[in-house]
Amino acid sequence: MQFDKETQTRILRVASDRQQGRSLEELDERISHVMDLHPEFDEVWTMGEMAAYPQEINGEIVSPFVHTVLHTIVDSQLRTEQPEFVVQTFKRLRDQGMEEHDTLHAIIAVYADIHFASFRQGKPFDQLDYESRLDYLSFEESDGGSE
């Protein structure tokens, strides 16, 4: 998926199809799944093209369009197991006790940082940097008690 007008149109169509209960093809099903993970975006999808712009949602500024694309990209990496190190990171963080959605967001944050930095600099996406940064991700559950 790209951050382009075609993808924006597709995401808005999927949001409409979901609302209307229409059947979806495979990629659209994956986009719909991401939308299911983020019901706080439901109202934004009714705004049409304005959904591509950052919005204040639950006290944070977020672009539902960009967030959905990033989620879908990482979802695809996990389903296809390419690159393999994304799957390894996902499993490792889950084994450490991180919740699934939080694990996705941790990986997405790394991917997004590299993607947008590369884009701004006119450079290709750096897979080695992605792998290296994911290797550093870890999760330790807090015990919730006082010390």
Task: Give a written overview of the molecule.
The chain has 147 residues and is mostly helical. It has two domains: 1-62, no CATH class; 81-139, no CATH class. 63% of the residues lie in helices and 4% in strands. The chain has seven helices and two strands. The protein has helices at 5-20, 26-37, 42-45, 64-80, 84-95, 100-121, 127-136, and strands at 55-57, 60-62. It has a two-stranded antiparallel sheet. It starts with a helix and ends in an 11-residue tail after the last helix.
List the helices and strands and how they pair.
Blueprint lengths: L4 H16 L5 H12 L4 H4 L9 E3 L2 E3 L1 H17 L3 H12 L4 H22 L5 H10 L11
Antiparallel strand pairs: 1-2
Helix pairs in contact: 1-2, 2-4, 4-6, 5-6, 6-7
**Distinct helical segment count:** 7
Main β-sheet, spatial strand arrangement: 1-2
Characterize the main sheet: 2 strands, antiparallel
Terminal Cα separation, in Å? Answer: 46 Å
Q: Which whole number gives the mean pLDDT?
A: 93
The number of distinct structural domains comes to 2
Low-pLDDT ranges: none
